[in-house]
Amino acid sequence: MADSKELQQIIERAVAQVLDRQLPKLQDEIVQSVMAELPASPAAAASGAESGVGSLVQAVNGIHAGTTQKEILRALLDAGSAYGARVALFVMKAGAAHGWQGRGFADDEAIKDFPLDMNAGPAAHAYQNRIVTPGNIAEMDRRFVERFGGPENEQLLVLPLVLKDKVAALLYADGGANNLLDASSLELLVMATSSWLEVASLRKQAHKDVSD
């Protein structure tokens, strides 16, 4: 039994070491995969394709710099604020959505713990179908609109952040007063975040197994 336990610890330690060594390669593969999905977006067309892609790569690298879930999600919001005038993350638990943090709102702190109605509208559709869902502000939770107002052009986007085949969070985005809303770039950032959260989870578990 002792030999078996010692062998298990050796294997777990080796797995953790290999995962650490492979992190740079995993980062590169995620960036390449995300960039391969990049369509010609309005933001890229306006500032030049090379500049647009370069900015996205920097944004993804910022997400990859995070080592904890909180750091990674904050990086998503910080990066997302360059592609949506107002962005907010709602964490899902047992089918309920609660505000975590926001960027670009008149009162970002008010997003925290705000309960989003999940009975209908773009948020419910994104959650139930696990797909990026565009919508009109008139379709959103009435309490949300009363509390935070809406974008100038009334258009919004809800993006599901999927982990282990489940929607762990929803990213709300709209164009605010200046109509800044780049759907393609936001979708790519959410994809990169999902992938990196999975990697971070595996790394954390490997190190936990070694230390136990």
| Binned strand content | 15-25%
Number of strand segments:
6
Number of helices: 7
What is the ordering of alpha helices and beta strands? HHHHEEEHEHEEH
Biggest sheet architecture: 6 strands, antiparallel
Q: What's the pLDDT, averaged over the residues?
A: 83
Compute the separation of the termini in Å: 17 Å
Rg for CA atoms:
19 Å
Helix-strand blueprint:
Elements: H1 2-36, H2 42-47, H3 49-64, H4 69-80, E1 86-93, E2 96-103, E3 115-116, H5 121-129, E4 133-136, H6 142-148, E5 155-163, E6 166-174, H7 183-211
Antiparallel strand pairs: 1-2, 1-6, 2-3, 4-5, 5-6
Helix pairs in contact: 1-7, 3-4, 3-7, 4-7
Please provide a written account of the structure.
The protein is of the alpha+beta class and 212 residues long. It is built from seven helices and six strands. It has a six-stranded antiparallel sheet with strand order 3-2-1-6-5-4, with helices on both faces. A hairpin with a 2-residue loop joins strand 1 (86-93) and strand 2 (96-103). Helix 1 packs antiparallel against helix 7 and helix 3 runs parallel beside helix 7. The chain is globular and about 60 Å long.
